[in-house]
Amino acid sequence: MTLSRSLLLAAAILAPLASVVAQDSTKGIDQGVRVGITYSPGVRPGLVVIPGAGLDSARALVQRDLDFSDRFEMMVLPPTTGLPSDAFRPGLAPPPLNYPLYRTLGASYGVELAAGPGGTLVRVHDVTAGTVRKEATVPLPDPADPSFRLAVHRLSDEIVRWISGTPGIAASRLALVIDRRVWRIDSDGGDLAPVTGTTEEALSPAWSPDGRKIAFTLFSGGRGSIVVLDLGSNARATVPSTNQFLNLTPMFSPDGHTLAFARSSEEGTDIYTADVSQMCCVQRLTVGRYADNLNPTYAPDGRRLAFVSTRTGLPQIYAMAADGTDQEVLAPSDFGVTGSSNAPEWSPDGARVVFHREVDRSPQLFLLDVAGSRVRQLTSAGRNEDPTWAPDGRHLAFVSDRSGRRQLWVIDVESGRIRQLNTPGNARLPAWSRRLAGSSLTN
Question: How far is CA 402 from CA 306, 384, 394, 406, in A?
């Protein structure tokens, strides 16, 4: 956007209109409300976060979250001050906006944040219709509060839901390995924090469906146990029978009761499951007979597992029922055009499986359409591996060396837009959480 265009928009912030009619105003956030123009994949409506007095930290986070949702064409305006404080009371008409000007400049929606009695007032303007289509008062913590970022991320996800009908991905996190230690990071690349200790060696983190626990491999005495860590209480539990051999690549079932993992011994590597709700009942699902079977991933209905197997030579993607029966090839071989396949993960809607496969000795990301068995390549620049799905089923995080060292990257599989999440060391083995639960965003 040119400077003159930005200044023109800034000047329009306080331009009066004869009347503004507020519609569908509420004091709480209705989870089922969808407003505004129908969103169509591939068509991004223009959206502007309207400048105002105060709330700079929240407004900046919301703007970035809405941008990273990849559902809008963001319009950036310079900050303004001096808006009347009593203009933001719930039930009063908002400061008038020059809707015709915003429409001329391509905005379909405007998002307004302002301090008000009882919390932060949030208004979504339907610029096309020239009305306020949604209003809510949201209690946000102080910016110095450790819960502030996640609370704002949840608000951003609701704004995405109000406009598009589908929530965003801001209120989610990634677990990853940096220098043999498990860390977690917000979906926008902020708030990096360690999960395991400085003297511990860990691998293969995986989130529970509710985001309250992380399972990982913990190395000790030449063995690798599967540990389940409760992030709230910091309590740990070792999965039964995993204190022997090397146990790795854990994955929770969709209901969170079962953990699938791989165990490597002198005979090969095979997939097992354990009931982690009762910490019992270990079952073996594959019999490798000197082959390797690992990297289990559940379909979202919990009825099938995809996994990697070397039973026919190079590692390939297989599938089986959750009890180990009906094992079959899922991603067919391309007869030598590419090499081994690894690290599958089933999409949240169950329609696709993402994995990485060797192309000219360099791993690249591939998407498998489960129904049609069609495979398409997603990446080609650098080495790209270990993909993991965001909860919206359209974004993927993965590890790439395209910037010179192994870092986290996020790609929108619909538009191809890509962004980097900077980490202080070489990143490995990311796992994306589902949307993290929290307090209700209401008065």
Answer: 28, 8, 21, 8
Residue 83 is predicted with a pLDDT of 42
Q: Say what the pTM is.
A: 0.86
Give 353-387 pLDDT, tens digit per residue: 999 999 988 999 999 999 988 899 999 999 999 99
pLDDT at 418 over 80: yes
Portion of the chain with pLDDT greater than 70, in percent: 84
Burial, 74: exposed, middle or buried (Cβ in 10 Å; 0-12, 13-18, 19+)? middle
Q: Which residue has the higher pLDDT, 92 or 166?
A: 166
Contact 227, 216 (CB under 8 A): yes
In our burial notation (b when 16+ CB lie closer than 10 A, e otherwise), range 245-279 reads: bbbbbbbbbbeeebbbbbbbeeebbbbbbbbbeee
Residue 442, token pair as written in the block = 């209401």
| Residue 253 contacts residue 298 (beta carbons within 8 Å) | yes
Evaluate if residue 429 carries a pLDDT over 90.
yes
Who contacts 282 (Cβ-Cβ below 8 Å, separation ≥6)?
Answer: 239, 240, 241, 272, 273, 274
Q: By C-alpha distance, which of 279, 280, 262 is closest to 271?
A: 262
**Alpha helices, H only, 99-258:** 99-104, 148-164
CA distance 215 to 217: 7
Query: Is residue 411 packed enough to be buried (19+ CB in 10 Å), middle (13-18) or exposed (0-12)?
Result: buried
Radius of gyration of the chain, Cα coordinates, nearest whole angstrom: 24
Residue 275 is given by DSSP the state E
Residue 36 has pLDDT above 80, yes or no: no
Domains identified in the chain and CATH numbers: 3-164 (3.40.50), 173-432 (2.120.10.30)
